[in-house]
Design goal:
This protein has 291 residues and is mostly helical. It is built from twelve helices and no strands.
Length: 291
């Protein structure tokens, strides 16, 4: 029971961090009357670099004896998935609202993780399969053409970000998570992703735009809701089945939608509410116990 409570607590904290990422990124990148606070490439680079720095400091604080010479665990494959997710995520939020982006992101996460789990032999009960189809149907309904449909380019980028995050999460459940403690693995992946993010920022230098609020939002996203948040998520992942890890993340759009309305004054369209209800109904069917 204690182990289950720990997993539930870690998962809840990670979901709050994921929602915070969407809100911070959208706040920094949306084009208000004065323009965006920062460009997407710079946001990505600062986010990843500050995440790596925060995790390194956390490791040094936890260590009983300094081990600076020891290589960090993690892998270049996971770092590449992390970078692709972060870059596509940032550019998608140039045109998407916070809640719509979060719903697309974690819908793609669900599709990726459940697809891989089924390919590896994991099976869903009939009720769980119906729930997964219901959630998928909600995402399809959101993407259908209409006045409140999200821009196609932004939606495609966010779906790519979700696929990359699904791959990163799956790697976290396998060899990466077992090669060291969760914080060290996450720190190693962030450190390896830094040169990739810096290369992106240099390539986009002609379009760079930085402001103090934008940099502050990027640092908060990297150090708190990304670095620390992902370390928490990596700690929870080994105790979660792939199908459950995929579906519980679909609670994030609801948290994000509430934050978008309260903090960013974003409208909440009926279409988004109905599609989110379908998605969350699917979560309940997949995650709730057999009884």
């Amino acid at each position: 029971m204690a182990g289950a409570a720990r997993t539930a607590t870690l998962t809840a904290l990670a979901l709050l961090a994921f929602a915070g990422n969407s809100l911070l990124c959208r706040a920094a990148l949306r084009d208000d009357a004065g323009g965006a606070a920062i460009d997407a490439a710079s946001f990505t680079a600062i986010r990843i670099a500050s995440g790596a720095a925060a995790l390194w400091l956390l490791l040094r604080w936890r260590a009983a004896t300094p081990q600076s010479a020891a290589p960090l665990p993690g892998s270049w494959g996971s770092a590449a998935a992390l970078f692709i997710y972060a870059a596509a995520f940032s550019f998608a939020y140039l045109s998407l609202g916070a809640a719509t982006g979060a719903l697309l992101l974690f819908g793609a996460v669900q599709a990726t993780m459940i697809g891989v789990a089924l390919a590896r032999g994991e099976r869903l009960r009939p009720v769980q399969a119906a729930g997964a189809l219901l959630a998928f149907g909600g995402l399809v309904a959101l993407l259908l053409p209409g006045l409140t449909a999200p821009p196609a380019g932004g939606a495609a980028l966010m779906l790519a970000a979700g696929a990359a995050w699904g791959a990163y999460s799956l790697r976290g459940r396998s060899a990466d998570a077992r090669s060291g403690n969760a914080t060290a693995v996450t720190a190693g992946n962030f450190a390896r992703a830094v040169p990739m993010a810096l290369a992106l920022a240099l390539a986009a230098l002609p379009w760079a735009h930085l402001s103090a609020p934008g940099v502050a939002l990027a640092v908060a996203s990297g150090a708190l809701t990304s670095g620390v948040g992902y370390a928490i998520w990596y700690a929870a992942l080994p105790a979660l089945r792939a199908t459950h890890a995929a579906t519980v993340q679909l609670a994030v759009p609801v948290i994000t939608a509430l934050g978008g309305v309260l903090l960013l004054a974003e409208p909440l369209h009926l279409r988004l509410v109905l599609c989110a209800a379908l998605v969350l109904g699917g979560i309940a069917l997949v995650v709730l116990p057999r009884r």
